[in-house]
Amino acid sequence: MGVSEWVDKIVIVEDDVLLREEMQNILEKQGYVVECITSFNDSVDDIISAAPSLIILDLNLPNLSGFEICRRVKAKGIGPIVVLTSRNQLNDELHALDLGADDYLTKPCHPRRLIARVQKLLTIYSTISPILDAGDFKIEDLSNRLLVGKKSIILSDNEGIIMKELVKSSPSIVNKEKLFQLLWGSSQFVDENILQVNMTRLRKTLEEVGLAHRIKTKRGIGYYLEGDDSQ
């Protein structure tokens, strides 16, 4: 049975446990999936792995500042980011916005204000980020974020290129020559085994969300997406 309902995931990056739990409770009551960063040793990697629809980010964090987290996450094309901080100086706000933050709120923040800003940004991003719909999953074209119901993952650049081409061409076969062109600009001087390695990695990634079975091989020709079970 395919999944037809998409649920936005919000990641909270906040070291104040009580505030973090309060925000999680508020947002979950609004129907969002919420994941909290509780260890700040690898914050950026943890955020990317969570593949969020939106990030709520404090600035005063251990190990790595919220400013630097904002810069690195935005460089990966992930967002939007709502900064929620006790720092109420204009210079801090301008710096955060310059680094790519989409909104800047100061503590204490009324829950209704936070919810309104979250909803607004999710609506805006849903209209500006092209989405490829494959029935039981979809892919955000700009960020390579793949969504399956309440689950989401970020595909690598090569995984995104392959998967998006398979979705665009479905149910037709994407021949190997086309994939060579998309990935490396040419099939000359490229070992065919490299493509097989990339397909193996993609299938391994898709196992995390139960989609590895969707990619089928047409021996000697190329690859295609098998129809989803919801149709």
TrEMBL record:
Residues 129-227 bind DNA. Its main location: cytoplasm. GO terms for biological process: regulation of DNA-templated transcription. Keywords: DNA-binding, Phosphoprotein, Transcription, Transcription regulation, Two-component regulatory system. GO terms for molecular function: phosphorelay response regulator activity; transcription cis-regulatory region binding. It is found in: Cytoplasm. PROSITE patterns: OMPR_PHOB, RESPONSE_REGULATORY. The modification 4-aspartylphosphate is found at D58. Pfam families: Response_reg, Trans_reg_C. The keyword Transport does not apply. One of its GO terms (cellular component) is cytosol. InterPro entries: CheY-like_superfamily (IPR011006), OmpR/PhoB-type_DNA-bd (IPR001867), Sig_transdc_resp-reg_C-effctor (IPR016032), Sig_transdc_resp-reg_receiver (IPR001789), WalR-like (IPR039420), WH-like_DNA-bd_sf (IPR036388). Residues 9-122 form the Response regulatory domain. Residues 129-227 form the OmpR/PhoB-type domain. This is Response regulator transcription factor. It comes from Mangrovibacillus cuniculi.
